[in-house]
Specification:
Layout: E1 4-7, H1 11-23, E2 27-33, H2 40-44, E3 47-52, H3 63-73, E4 77-79, H4 89-98, E5 101-102, H5 107-114, H6 116-125, E6 133-134, H7 141-151, E7 155-163, E8 166-171, H8 174-192, E9 197-201, E10 207-215, E11 221-233, E12 236-242, H9 249-265, E13 270-278, E14 284-290, H10 297-304, H11 308-316, E15 333-340, E16 342-343, E17 349-350, E18 353-354, E19 357-359, E20 385-390, E21 397-398, E22 405-413, H12 416-428, E23 431-433, H13 439-446, H14 449-453, H15 460-464, H16 476-498, E24 514-519, E25 522-530, E26 535-539, E27 544-549, E28 557-562, E29 565-574, E30 577-582, E31 585-592, H17 594-600, E32 614-616, E33 621-626, E34 633-634, E35 639-645, E36 648-653, E37 658-663, E38 670-671, E39 676-680
Parallel strand pairs: 1-2, 1-4, 2-3, 4-5
Antiparallel strand pairs: 6-9, 7-8, 7-9, 10-11, 10-13, 11-12, 12-15, 13-14, 15-22, 16-17, 18-21, 19-23, 20-22, 24-25, 24-31, 25-26, 26-27, 27-28, 28-29, 29-30, 30-31, 32-39, 33-35, 33-38, 34-37, 35-36, 37-39
Helix pairs in contact: 4-5, 5-6, 7-8, 12-13
Length: about 675
Amino acid sequence: MFKKLLIANRGEIACRVIKTARKMGIATVAVYSDADRGALHVKMADEAIHIGPPPASESYIVIDKIMAAIKETGAEAVHPGYGFLSENMKFAEALEAAGVAFVGPPSPAIEAMGDKITSKKIAAEAGVSTVPGFMGLIADADEAVKISAQIGYPVMIKASAGGGGKGMRIAWNETETREGFQASKNEAKSSFGDDRIFIEKFVTQPRHIEIQVLADKHGNCVYLGERECSIQRRNQKVIEEAPSPFLDAATRKAMGEQAVALAQAVGYTSAGTVEFIVDGDRNFYFLEMNTRLQVEHPVTELITGVDLVEQMIRVAAGEKLPFAQDDIKLTGWAMESRLYAEDPYRNFLPSIGRLTRYRPPVEVQAGPLHVTRKWQGEAPVGATAVRNDTGVFEGGEISMFYDPMIAKLCTWAPDRAGAIEAMRVALDGFEVEGIGHNLPFLSAVMDHDRFASGNITTAFIAEEYPDGFQGVTLDEGSLARVAAAAAAMHRVAEIRRTRVSGRMDNHERRVGTDWMVTLQGVDFPVVIAADHDGSTVTFDDGRAMRVTSDWTPGDSLARLMVDGSPLVLKVGKISGGFRIRTRGADLKVHVRSPRQAELARRMPEKLPPDTSKLLLCPMPGLIVRIDVEVGQEVQEGQALCTVEAMKMENILRAERKGVVAAIKCGPGDSLAVDEVIMEFE
C-alpha cells in the first residue's frame, strides 16, 4: 500500500480524501493557492505545498505545478478528487511517465469517456441507448442555430469537456441558441481550457439517474445501485438521494448491467459514474460517463457500506475488489443536500465573504457504512445517521475564485420518509452566518409535498419555483407551534432581565402571563403558565401546548419539545422579540404585552428606497461586458451586461423598456453586491 498520497484538489473533497487516507494509515499532502493558504484541507494534511495565485488556471489545473509538488514531497500516488485535473488525460499520462500512481482510471478510458462527444459515439457502438443530437464539433453560432433547427427545439448546448453544470445552456429558440452558444464557449474555456461545444435534444420532463460503478485491474467490475439527481437548478445538482424512488428492480438491474458493460468496453478501472436520463416510462438514455469520484458519492456509501475513496486507493495499488456483484446490498435510504454560498432570495446568485458562524449539526454514525458486517444489508433498526462533508470552518473565507459549495449534508434512515425527516431536523440545526446561503431553500424542498411523494423531474425547481424562491410561508399549525415556543422563550428572557443587578431599591419587576405573539402577519393571544419543568401556552381558542427546552437567552439555537414533537429553531434577538428561522421560513416574531401590541399596530411602516431606475450588481463579481451605451433605448428582456462570479457568467437583462442615463462601470471592474452598474431615465 502507498505510504504517501497527494490530493490534487481543495475544499471538501480534499478533506474527504484525507479522512480515508488517515484511516488507512497513509500520509497526505495538500496543495493550495494563495486564496487557500488558511484552508481546512491545508490544516488537515500532513504536508502542504503552495502552488500559485488564486485563479485555478494559475494553480490547481497547472500540471507542472502539481508534478513539482509530487517531486518535492515524494508522494507515491495522487487522488484528483473531482473537477480540476480529475478527468485530464494529460495529467494521468504525466503521472504514469513519472511512475506515480493515479487514483483513477487509465488515461485511454479518460480520453474515451471524458469527452462527451467521443463517449456518446462509443456508447452508441456498444448498443447503449443515447439521446438524439449532433456529436461533431460546432464552429460558430450560425452553425449552432442550423443544427438546433434540424434537431428540433428545445436543445441542450454543452461543453464537450464540461461538468458541474458549467458550459451548459438550454435553448428554446434561435436567439437563445446564439446567446447560449457563446456563453457556453466562454465558460468552457474559462473552467476547463477547452471551448468545444456540441448540441443534443433536450428531453423534457426527465429524471436524472446515475449508476455508480467500481472496477479493479483484474477484470472485476460491479455497480453499486443508483442515485437520483433530479433536483437541479441551472443544470447543477442540489439534492441527491439513493436509491431512486422511481426505479424498479428490473430497470435498476438493466441500467447497472449496461453501465458495467460500457465501463468494461473501455478498460475502465477505479470508481466511475454512468449518467442517464429516464423518462416517465422508465426508458433510459445514456448521457455521459464521469471518470472520477462524484460529488454525491456519500449517499451510495451510506446505503452500501462501501467506502468508495478507500476502494479507489486500493484499486490504484493493484488490489482486487473484496466483493462481487451479488455481495452488494442496498440498505435503507440516504439523502444529500448541497449547501451552497448563494443567496436564494436573489435568484441564487453567488455570495462571498467570511463565515462569521459555521456550526453544522452533530454527525451521527449509523447505517451500512458503520455496521460490523459490511455489504450484508444489515443496519440498526430505527437508527438514523447524519454526515457532513465540508471544507470550511468558522471564521474562514468563501472565495470568489472557486465553486460555491460549502458542505454536503447527508442523512440515512431505514426508509425514505425517515431520511427526509432526519434531513429536515439536520437542516434546521445547521447554523451559517456571514454570507448568503441556500439552507432555507433546501428546507423548503424537504417539506414540499411533491418532493415527499417522489414525483420529481429535473424540472422540479423551475416548475415549483417559477418566480424564484421567496421564502417559506408556514401553515397555521406550524405558526402556532413557533408562537408557543417564542412565548416560552420570551418568558425565560424576561425572567433573566428581572435579575439584572443595579435595580432600584424596593422595586420588583413582575413577569406577566398574558402576551400577544405576532409572526407572519398573524396575532396569537396567549397565556403562559410556567412550572419548574417548562411552560404550558394556552391560545385564545382553548388550545394548549406544552413547551420544554434548555434554551437560555443568547443561545443561537433552540431545541425544544412543543406539543409532544421536537422543534429546532435558529434564534436571533430583535427589538421586542426574536428573529426565528425554521423549515425554510425566516420570521420576525414579536412578543408583546396586550397594550404594547395595541400601540405597535399604530406605528407607520418604513418603506424601502426606490431602486426601480437603477441596475444593481446582484452579486460580488467581475464585469465581463457592457452591452449598451448611454442614451440607448432598451427593451424588456434585452441584455444589458454580463457579470462573472465563481466561474459562471450571468447575463443581466432589462426588466422594462427605458433609456440608459448613465453607466457607472466598465469591463474588468470588480463590484460588490448592490453596487450601481447603470442608471435609467
